[in-house]
């Protein structure tokens, strides 16, 4: 298990202090080998991983040269630029994957499709702990085969 009983980090915001599941990760540009470490919020409501636009230059990406996409979130739609990036934690690294970089984002988000889908996530809110363990991905077909026939 790459992460076991990791403590939530307490952050201050507009509504006071709240504990949230943040994970220390390394982002790597596979084309330049530039990398940076940051605390990223585990966000099961995010389909994909998203990074602040300021990270693009630090990783050697030209922000606006990336694939331009429109993505939706809590605050509506934003223009994002996608660049090939690897996300690494001790004992695990993603394959090269397109990660979106957004101008008005302050906190890196670890979303489902490009990161969390590799793990079983356990969250213990009362004790402010979380764990990630590797799990084998199953195809949708494996689940559909077990559904009762109509």
* Helical fraction: under 10%
Number of domains: 1
Poorly predicted parts: none
Through-space gap between termini: 40 Å
Bin the strand percentage.
over 45%
Question: Which architecture does the CATH hierarchy give at level 2?
Answer: Beta Barrel
What can be said about the biggest beta sheet? 8 strands, mixed
Assign the structural class, choosing from mainly alpha, mainly beta, alpha/beta, alpha+beta, or little secondary structure: mainly beta
- How many runs of DSSP E, i.e. beta strands? 13
CATH topology term: Cathepsin D, subunit A, domain 1
What would you call the quaternary organization?
A: single chain
The CATH top-level class label: Mainly Beta
Mean pLDDT: 89
Shape: globular
**H/E topology pattern:** EEEEEEHEEEEEEEH
Count of alpha and pi helical runs: 2
Provide the descriptors you would attach to this structure in a database record.
150 residues; Cathepsin D, subunit A, domain 1; 2 helices; 13 strands
Description of the molecule:
- By secondary structure, this protein is mainly beta.
- It has a single domain, classed as Cathepsin D, subunit A, domain 1.
- The protein is built from two helices and 13 strands, in the order E-E-E-E-E-E-H-E-E-E-E-E-E-E-H.
- The strands form three sheets. Strands 4, 5, 6, 7, 8, 9, 10 and 11 form an eight-stranded mixed beta sheet that branches. The chain has a three-stranded antiparallel beta sheet with strand order 1-13-12, with no helix packed on it.
């Amino acid at each position: 298990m790459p992460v076991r009983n990791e403590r939530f980090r307490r952050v201050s915001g507009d509504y006071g202090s709240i504990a949230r599941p943040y994970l220390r990760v390394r982002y790597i540009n596979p084309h330049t080998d530039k990398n940076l470490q940051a605390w990223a919020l585990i966000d099961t409501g995010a389909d994909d991983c998203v990074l602040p636009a300021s990270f693009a230059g630090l990783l050697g990406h030209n922000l606006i040269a990336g694939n331009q996409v429109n993505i939706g979130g809590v605050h509506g739609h934003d223009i994002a630029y996608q660049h090939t990036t690897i996300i690494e934690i001790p004992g695990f690294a993603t394959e090269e994957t397109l990660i979106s970089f957004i101008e008005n984002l302050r906190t890196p988000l670890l979303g489902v499709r490009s990161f969390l889908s590799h793990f079983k996530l356990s969250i213990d809110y009362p004790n402010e702990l979380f764990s990630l363990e590797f799990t084998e991905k199953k195809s949708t077909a494996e689940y559909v085969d077990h559904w009762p026939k109509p």
